[in-house]
Amino acid sequence: MQQRLFKILLSIGLLLITSLGLGFGYLIHLHTQEFLDAEVASLHQGIQERVTFLDEITQREDTYLDQRLQVLLPNIYRLLTADQTPLAQVSLDRLFLIKNMYAEYGQLDIYILDPHSNIIQTTNPKELGVHLASYGTFRERIFDRLQTQTLYIDRFSTSAVEGSLRKFAFYRPKTSSDYTLEISIDFYSYLEKRYSKEYTELFKPSAFNTFVQTNPFAYYIDLYLVKAHSAFSLIHQNHQMSQENIRKVQALGYLEKQEGNFLKVYQLLKEANPDEILGHTLILETEFNLQNLNRLRNALILGSVLLSLALLVMMLFILRARLHKDFIEPLTQLKSNLEQLSQGHYLLSLPEFKYEFKDIAAAFVQMSHAVQARELALLEARQVLEQRVQERTLALQEAKSYAESLARTDMLTQLPNRRYLEEHFEYLIRDQNTYPLTLVIFDLDFFKKVNDTYGHHLGDQVLIHVGNLGSSLIQAPAMLGRLGGEEFVILLPNMHKQAAWILMDELRIHVSQTPVYVSGQPPIYVTLSAGVVTVTQKEKTQASFKHLLRCADEALYQAKASGRNCVRLYTPN
């Protein structure tokens, strides 16, 4: 009992330690998750502020540069065509000469476009021969505008390949041919000339790597520029973003994916806005290394579990000592007394108990006396009950036998009824030693006339008389039974049809010569007609009680047709 109680306490303790461990683990998980969420939010907020700041600076510089280009493009055009040289025939040397004159604008490139928007001369050899009209909506947005205006300055455009910002401007005076002058200015090099190299570094995508160095969990950062359902990396050119992730971020604004100890977070920094300078969709991708955080969380959870386990062990030892003294010893004594009581020792001497066990001991003594009295009463009651059970069992057996007899016996003649005849036939048909098996059906000739003449009471006496005559002649294993009305059936195992015919003819003669004597009435003579059918073992598969009864009934009909008071054998067809 002591071990069982200790196991119960141990189970409760384990349940408590498990609950405490789960509770501490859940709290630690919540705190670490909150800490991680705060770090992610802080990092994203810093990057968002940086992007907003860059948008403001870019907007300001774009406005300032527009004002300068309105003067710069006509000046460059006059320098290129100073000696009446057509724009289409300007040499490359002159282009580079003028480019160097305006080095204050940083990386400035000059282009000459033919009427079909092909670059026929440029200071950037990589773009010589490029057909600008093939670049999306260039003709609709820029080239067609030069049909109605002389100067067009485009806003800053991002280069997904180089990760750069460039400013494009176009000039076509009405007095010239259809050739167009185009210049482009690199935003970063322009800022270096206008301010300083350190100031320009703040605008480059690589400057965002400082956020990785200041965040304890950030592994890397990348910015994706989304154009036409494709994302181009601005920091790590070898990184790619799937179209599925692009759609999810654009729809939800935020997406998290965790693989092992690494957590990837995608956040929509900017949605496409044609009214802004950098009007493309901008997505921030941040990957966090959670290995150190997970280690710290697991260490805290393990520490809490070990501490709870130590407290549990201490608590169990204290509880065990108190339980043994206050509960185990009294319960052990009570158990010993219960064993004596179970062996029939009702006079018990109990020691002194403390606490509630004193009341339990007193109640225990009262119980022993009550049990003794009740056992004596139960013994007497059991003897009476056993006697009644024996009497009821005997009565039930007699009633059962009588019910079975009623269910299988004809109440008038006390012969087997149709149900018993069918059951006995099924038994005979399955027995291999009962063939040939003969069935005889006979009824009393003109029995209705007997009922009409003498009444049904005398008719019943006639049926009983015929049944008694048949029973005296038909011996086991044959069976005589009443089918119903004035019809009787005889089952004759191991008897050929000729022997059955002789037996039935003997019964016919015996019935016709033995009258029924009733007080106050003249003797009543009756005759019978019978039909006989026999089945062999080969025919038993097709034989059934109803089938043989129908065949015997046909033979009985032949006997009736032959003048009654005779026996006929069944002949097929």
What is this structure, in a nutshell?
This protein is an alpha+beta fold.
Average pLDDT confidence is 81
Task: Please give the alpha-carbon distance between the first and last residues.
Answer: 89 Å
Any idea what the radius of gyration is? 60 Å
Assembly of the depicted chains: single chain
Helix percentage range: 40-55%
CATH class of the domain at 418-569: Alpha Beta
CATH-assigned homologous superfamily of the domain at 418-569: Reverse transcriptase/Diguanylate cyclase domain
Low-confidence segments, given as residue ranges, are none
CATH structural fold name of the domain at 418-569: Alpha-Beta Plaits
What string gives the helices and strands in order? HHEEHEEEEHHHEEHEEEHHHEHHEEHEHE
Number of strands: 16
Largest sheet: 6 strands, antiparallel
Transmembrane segments: 299-319
Protein name: diguanylate cyclase
GO cellular component, one term: plasma membrane
Enzyme class: transferase
